[in-house]
Design goal:
By secondary structure, the chain is mainly alpha-helical. The protein has twelve helices and two strands.
């Protein structure tokens, strides 16, 4: 399933949607994470379906994209932000976006589809940047599971869940209250609390830095060495 999502992107789209920032290395690293958390696979699929919606996908439509177009559009929300709406509208009118699309109706169609997306427009670059902070937490969560498990992380925890209908729900670092609900809801709360704890405390629980921080440290070391 993970590989099939990747193969849905042409090489030109992959380069554009990742802004060309060493995409092959980072995308491959992100696929390692996908093995362990289905939610990340869903996020990657959302990138693909969103851009298919914008472009009304045809065999040639990904060639309308370039790095600059994705850089401008990613993270915008035209439906919820009037500032984003007018900014992208101006870019379309001045042919900063999709300059090779010359048909007026086709350009209006692209803008109309951009304007109804009900979330921040994603890209592979945003996906990759977000996963950099998840990797250490994934490694911590794996340590709670039997070795050599083959499922996604969530599926493995669901298999181990004891179906209790009461659980202590954390309200702050020191406050908890009893939560009574269905076994499914209790599992969801427990699973989220494990993730949140791992994300808050991973510097104390592992020597691994998030890849974003590790890359920043490497740049500092390289800069100092050059001096």
């Amino acid at each position: 399933m993970i590989i099939s999502v990747d193969r849905c992107f042409s090489s030109s789209a992959n380069l554009a949607l990742s802004r060309g920032d060493d995409s092959s290395y980072h995308v491959n690293a992100s696929y390692i994470l996908l093995k362990y958390e289905q939610k990340l696979s869903n996020c990657l699929a959302l990138v693909k379906t969103t851009w298919e919606q914008i472009l009304e996908l045809t065999d040639a439509s990904y060639f309308y994209l370039d790095v600059n177009i994705v850089h401008i559009i990613q993270g915008q929300s035209l439906l919820t932000s009037s500032e984003d709406y007018h900014f992208i509208e101006n870019c379309m009118q001045n042919e900063i976006l999709f300059p090779i699309v010359t048909d007026r109706q086709q350009r209006l169609g692209i803008f109309r589809r951009l304007s109804v997306i009900p979330y921040l427009i994603p890209s592979l670059y945003i996906f990759i940047e977000d996963t950099k902070h998840v990797e250490p937490s994934v490694k911590i969560m794996k340590r709670l599971l039997p070795s050599r498990f083959k499922e996604f992380v969530r599926q493995a925890f669901e298999r181990l869940h004891t179906s209790q209908t009461q659980i202590m729900k954390q309200r702050s670092e020191t406050m908890f209250r009893l939560f009574s609900h269905s076994a499914k809801e209790c599992f969801q709360v427990a699973y989220q609390q494990l993730w949140l704890f791992a994300m808050r405390r991973f510097p104390e629980m592992t020597c691994i830095q998030s890849r974003k921080n590790a890359e920043r440290s490497m740049k500092v070391i390289t800069s100092e060495a050059e001096e």
